[in-house]
Design brief:
The chain has helices at residues 2-15, 18-34, 42-49, 62-73, 76-89, 92-117, 131-138, 142-174, 185-204, 207-236, 241-254, 267-282, 289-293, 301-330, 340-348, 353-386, 391-407, 411-434, 436-451; strands at 120-121, 127-128. The chain contains 19 helices and 2 strands. The chain is mainly alpha-helical and 453 residues long. Helix 4 runs parallel beside helix 14, helix 5 (76-89) runs antiparallel to helix 12 and helix 5 crosses helix 14 (301-330). Strand 1 (120-121) and strand 2 form a beta hairpin.
Length: 453
């Protein structure tokens, strides 16, 4: 088992070498230019996300598609992912995460645009889309679409399933002292696993409409509560905020020397973990969110692409940035033997029981919604590979994996997730670069028409 762990860790390190960081960051920058700095239309995009488009075809509303995508992205990456980036890459990793989000808005926009433009209706009369269909129909490379779908189906069990269950069971065990009775850690993990698996099974029975309905109710509430909690922590510790911001910026470009229990990290580590965890969190360029964007009721691919792009803004530019400020500002990342769970616990403990409630409650809702969102991504990838007959077996396997992730805690799960994320991002990023002319022309068409209204 140790040898397998070492191989997976080595594989993740190779996949996330400098070449992939350059490819991802370069795509973000290139598409920002090709779309005419699409980030400047963020206000318009936010307004579209809460409006309806009459007479449009699709399975769910634009808001439902956005909240389902947000449900999949706002997860452990926003809490544990940030904590892991800080512990491994130093405070500077927070800035690289944030920049990945800012420029990643253009990439999220572009991949959603292509997925809606090239979506199809499956044999059940439902919309199907995503990078696999873009690769097949726009680039005539079905083989590449199958490679993407395979990696997406595997990645789903990492980023969207077992890492999520692993995070919440670890957090519950770490906070077991608040329970009025004593429970063995193994029993507590099994209880969390049974609860999560049962709730997941209940929602999955209803398919994408059920998932979107639950996410539309859960995501706005959980995100608002968590943001308020972070703001409260920062307000109570306002005197360290300026130094925290300065430390994050300086460490991003100079690295962070060893201090306390922190062993030190260079610029490369800050970039590697910041960008990797940024992708884990907002999924811009990963190719996952466009799968649900293709199910949205819309008549114009640009309109839905704008709505989808707001997901990266809320996820990373807002939520991950606040988490980073809270965690770095606590100073606990320098503690001897600090872990993701201990760092998060100590940072939020400054506001007492309310901090514990926000952290555990926020993580629980984040985890559950992410498991739901990614179940749809994995399901669509498997459907592309072998057809709709595989959907029900996949759902059964998905629920079983939720339980397994709750009781089997290992860094291998996170390394596996990192590796699969990188591998599925590669064909998606290449497709966007090759189709950047389509993205640019569709964008120009939409905004030229809007200017004449």
């Amino acid at each position: 088992m140790e040898k397998l762990d070492a191989w997976i860790a080595a594989g993740a390190g190779y996949v996330w070498g400098p070449w992939l960081v350059i490819l991802l960051a370069g795509t973000h920058l290139y598409l920002t230019w090709r779309t005419g700095l699409i980030q400047r239309h963020l206000g318009h995009a936010i307004r579209l996300s809460v409006s309806k488009e009459e007479g449009a075809q699709g399975d769910i509303s634009q808001f439902g598609a956005l909240t389902t995508a947000l449900a999949a992205t706002i997860g452990t990456g926003n809490i544990y992912g940030v904590a892991g980036a800080v512990l491994l890459g130093g405070p500077g990793a927070v800035l690289w995460m944030w920049l990945t989000g800012v420029f990643g808005i253009a990439t999220k926009y572009s991949e959603a645009l292509l997925s809606v433009k090239y979506r199809v209706v499956n044999e059940r009369g439902q919309m199907s889309g995503g990078p696999m269909f873009v690769l097949q129909y726009a680039l005539k490379a079905r083989w590449a679409g199958m490679i993407f779908a395979l990696f997406a189906a595997l990645a789903a069990f990492g980023i969207g399933n077992m890492t999520q269950a692993d995070a919440i069971s670890g957090m519950v065990v770490a906070n077991a002292d608040v329970l009025p009775f004593t429970v063995a850690p193994e029993t507590l993990k099994m209880s969390v696993g049974i609860f999560l698996a049962g709730m997941t099974a209940l929602v999955l029975l209803g398919g994408i409409r059920s998932i979107a309905r639950v996410c539309s109710l859960l995501v706005p509430f959980m995100a608002a509560l968590y943001v308020l909690g972070c703001l409260l922590v920062l307000a109570l510790n306002w005197e360290v905020v300026p130094h925290t911001i300065s430390l994050i910026f300086s460490s991003a470009f100079t690295g962070q020397a060893a201090v306390g229990g922190f062993v030190g990290a260079g610029i490369r580590e800050a970039m590697r973990y910041g960008v990797a965890r940024g992708l884990f969190s907002n999924e811009s360029g990963l190719g996952s969110a466009p799968i649900v964007a293709a199910a949205a009721r819309t008549k114009d691919p640009v309109r839905q692409a704008l709505v989808s792009s707001t997901g990266t803004f809320w996820d990373t530019v807002v939520i991950c940035a606040l988490t980073g400020l809270v965690l770095v500002g606590s100073g606990d990342w320098t503690a001897e033997g600090a872990t993701k769970a201990s760092l998060c616990n100590q940072a939020f403990h400054s506001i007492g029981w309310l901090g514990d409630f926000i952290l555990v409650g926020g993580l629980l809702t984040f985890v559950f919604s992410t498991i739901l969102g990614w179940s749809y991504y994995g399901e669509k990838a498997v459907e592309y590979l072998v057809g709709v007959k595989a959907i029900m077996p996949y759902r059964v396997l998905w629920v079983a994996a939720v339980f397994l992730g709750s009781v089997w805690q290992s860094t291998t799960i996170w390394n596996f997730a990192d590796m699969m994320n990188g591998l599925m991002a590669i064909p998606n990023l290449i497709a966007m670069l090759l189709l950047s002319g389509v993205i640019a022309s569709e964008t120009k068409r939409y905004f030229d028409a809007r200017a004449q209204e």
